[in-house]
Amino acid sequence: MADRDESPSGARTATSASPAGRSYLEATGERIEQTLDIDSWDPAHKVAEQFDRLQNEIVRAQISELETRRDIRARIFPLLGDQPGAPACAGVHGVALDDLRQVQRQLLFSGHVQAVDGASVVHETLPITIVQTAVALANYLGEHGTWGHRIFQKDLKVSGQDPIERTMALLERRAEADEADGSGISDMLRRGLMANAELAVLASKANAPWRMGHGHPLPKELLTGAGMPELIELSVPLFRKLLLEHRRFVYLPRGTRSRLLQTIGDALVPLEFAIVEDVSGYLNDVIEGGHYGQGKFQAAKRLLDDFKAEASARIVVGAFRVSPHSSSQIFYAHADFAAEAAVVAMADAILVEPRGFPMLLDLAGGICRDLFPPDAILRPAAALYARATMGV
User: Fold this and answer.
1) How many domains in the chain?
2) Where is this region: Disordered (predicted)?
3) What is the pLDDT at residue 305?
4) Domain boundary pick from 76, 106, 129
């Protein structure tokens, strides 16, 4: 529980009414009341004169970051491999540029790495909701495969009922579905369908020695089933095939909510990677904290428990940085190939040095969006709507 500042009477002070209020003061050097005092704001012609102040603020922030980075490197990095339950490969490692060039020649540019990315679009009208899910598999030889699927959820029957009554009934059903998040194609289920499709392509369609995925290798949507036990039952065998049997994979999310991973990643210098921990804590939080219900969900839960017992210590997470101009990136890999996975991802990421994120994933995502653009579902939606309304 976070500490809180209290006045002598025991009541909270106005400047520290919450942890968020206190962090705002610490982060900006002023109370939120000062920020929102419009009388203290500068007119436009004075704002243009604030560059000196801005420069000083940036310099101070950089100095503070360097000091923090030095402390983390000196005090935290040596402990990564000594923590109870830490992966055998935990720690900070440096990579030579020649090693990255060799991986580029021998793996990336020779087509021995394939990346998958997907896209999901929803087109919602009164009588029907169309969900388009697409996945693309690509390598640097120009070879790619694409798969797409559309789901048609008919929310409203357009004949046989008074238009006002059926519209009101639809609105009520949608309101109930929003509250319960368990009717029809929820947003979580839509993400789960796309995640399963990406997983299936990497596990069963890809044939390269190394496979690269976008996001988390064990997304919550698939671990919980997004309300459908069948999604769990279909996903666990794919998890096993790719993550535990093939093992030569690397997954990269765009960003992280983990302050631990972000802090360690920010303290890395270019051409360094760190392997921090395994996914046992994450799996425990999601699976043990989930509400799996009865019936089919119990059978799905047993599948997850067996998988968790086998996979928790074998999938690790780390961070890397390839350039002083780019932010650090998070990656997931099998413990047996974690160092190689980091180098594969870094060799690809350094191709786009200002971003520091693997270009092959961007290529797969671009192919997917080009071949399955969002407006591709507008024409069939309009045709279906016109056909349906003919019966009114």
Assistant:
1) 2
2) 1-24
3) 94
4) 76
- SS3 for the chain, per residue? CCCCCECCCCCECHHHCCHHHHHHHHHHCCCHHHHCCHHHCCCHHHHCCCHHHHHHHHHHHHHHHHHHHHHHHHHHHHHCCCCCCCCCCCEEEECCHHHHHHHHHHHHCCCCEEEEEEEEEEEECCCEEEEEEEEEEECCCCCEEEEEEEEEEECCCCCCCCHHHHHHHHHHHHHHHHHHCCCCCCHHHHHHHHHHHHHHHHHHHCCCCEEEEECCCCCHHHHHHHHCHHHHHHHHHHHHHHHHHHCCEEEECCCCCCHHHHHHHHCCCCCEEEEEEECHHHHHHHHHCCCCCCCHHHHHHHHHHHHHHHHCCCEEEEEEECCCCCCCEEEEEEHHHHHHHHHHHHHHHHHHCCCCCCHHHHHHHHHHHHHCCHHHHHHHHHHHHHHHHCCC
Indicate whether 296 and 170 sit together in one domain: yes
Note the pLDDT tens digit of each residue in 100-153: 999 999 999 999 999 999 988 887 766 667 788 899 999 999 988 998 887 776
The pTM (predicted TM-score) of the whole model is 0.75
Q: Are residues 232 and 152 in the same domain?
A: yes
Asked if the structure places residue 3 within a domain, the reply is no
* Residue 26 included in any domain: yes
Q: Is the pLDDT of residue 392 over 60?
A: no
Is 158 or 363 the better-scoring residue by pLDDT?
A: 363
Domain assignment present for residue 124? The answer is yes
Please check whether residue 137 lies inside any domain of the structure. yes
Give the pLDDT mean for 60-71.
72
